[in-house]
Design a protein that fits this description.
Helix content is 38%, strand content 17%. The protein contains six helices and five strands. Helix 1 links the parallel strand 1 and strand 2. Bound molecules: flavin mononucleotide. The site of flavin mononucleotide (FMN) has 19 residues, from helix 1.
C-alpha cells in the first residue's frame, strides 16, 4: 500500500507540514509505504493551456512535474496538505493540481480505462489550516481538491481543517489536532486494507 503525502506549504516546519507528518506517521504505523513530496522543492510551471496534452494525455512541459505524475498514479492513497492562501490552496499546490490536466484528458477525453470505473481506485484526503475563523475559509480549497482527486480516480475521504492557526508551529498548541491527523492517516490505510 503506497501513501503519497503532498506538502503544499512553502514554510518548512509549518502547521500543515506538522499535521501531514502526523498523518503519514499514522499511515506508516498501519504498514503503509509512505512517500513525501515537498512541492516547493520542485519546479512546477503553471499549466499554459496549450492543449499539448489533448492528443496523448501527456504534458509537453518537461519540468519537475514529470517526476510527480508517476508518483500520483502509483499511489493508493494521496494526502494533500496546504494552508489557505487567499481562500485557496497555495500556488505550489495549485500549479501541481492544474498540471494534472493531462490526467483529466486521459480520463474524460481519451477514456483511459485505468482512470475509469474499472481502473485503480484511490483514496484522497485533504489537510488544511487557516489564520482566520470565517465559516467559508476552506470552501474554495475543498472544491479544488475534490476535483483534483476526481481526476486521480481517488475517492474523497474528507478533510481535516483547523481555523485560527497562523504563526509557524502554532498547531503544536493543539495536541488534539495532531492526534486527529495521526488517526486520520491510520484510518485511511486500515480501511483500505480491510476493504481488500
Ligand atoms: C500569502 C498568504 C495568504 C494567506 N491567506 C489566508 C486566507 O485567505 N485565509 C486565512 O485564514 N489565512 C490565510 N493565510 C494564513 C495561513 O493560512 C496560516 O498562516 C497558516 O497557518 C500557514 O500554514 P503553514 O504553516 O503550513 O504554512 C495566508 C498566509 C499567506 C502567507
Amino acid at each position: 500500500m503506497k501513501v503519497l503525502g503532498l506538502f503544499g506549504s512553502p514554510r518548512r516546519g509549518g502547521n500543515t507540514e506538522i499535521l501531514l507528518e502526523e498523518a503519514l506517521k499514522g499511515a506508516e504505523k498501519e504498514g503503509a509505504k509512505v512517500e513525501r513530496l515537498y512541492l516547493s522543492d520542485f519546479t512546477i510551471t503553471p499549466c499554459k493551456e496549450c492543449h499539448g496534452c489533448d492528443p496523448t494525455g501527456n504534458c509537453v512541459i518537461l519540468d519537475d512535474m514529470q517526476k510527480i505524475y508517476p508518483k500520483l498514479t502509483e499511489a493508493d492513497v494521496v494526502i494533500l496538505a496546504s494552508p489557505i492562501f487567499f481562500y485557496g490552496v497555495t500556488a505550489w499546490a495549485k500549479a501541481m493540481i492544474d498540471r494534472t490536466q493531462p490526467l483529466w484528458v486521459r480520463k474524460y477525453l481519451l477514456k483511459d480505462p485505468s482512470l475509469g470505473e474499472g481502473g485503480k481506485r484511490r483514496k484522497g484526503f485533504f489537510i488544511s489550516v487557516g489564520a482566520t475563523k470565517g465559516l467559508k475559509v476552506f470552501d474554495g480549497a475543498v472544491l479544488t481538491v475534490k476535483y483534483f482527486f476526481d481526476v486521480l480516480n481517488a475517492e474523497y475521504m474528507g478533510e481535516l481543517v483547523f481555523r485560527g492557526v497562523e504563526a509557524k508551529g502554532d498547531i503544536l498548541k493543539h495536541p488534539e489536532a495532531l492526534q486527529q491527523a495521526f488517526e486520520a492517516g491510520r484510518r485511511l490505510v486500515s480501511n483500505l486494507t480491510k476493504g481488500r
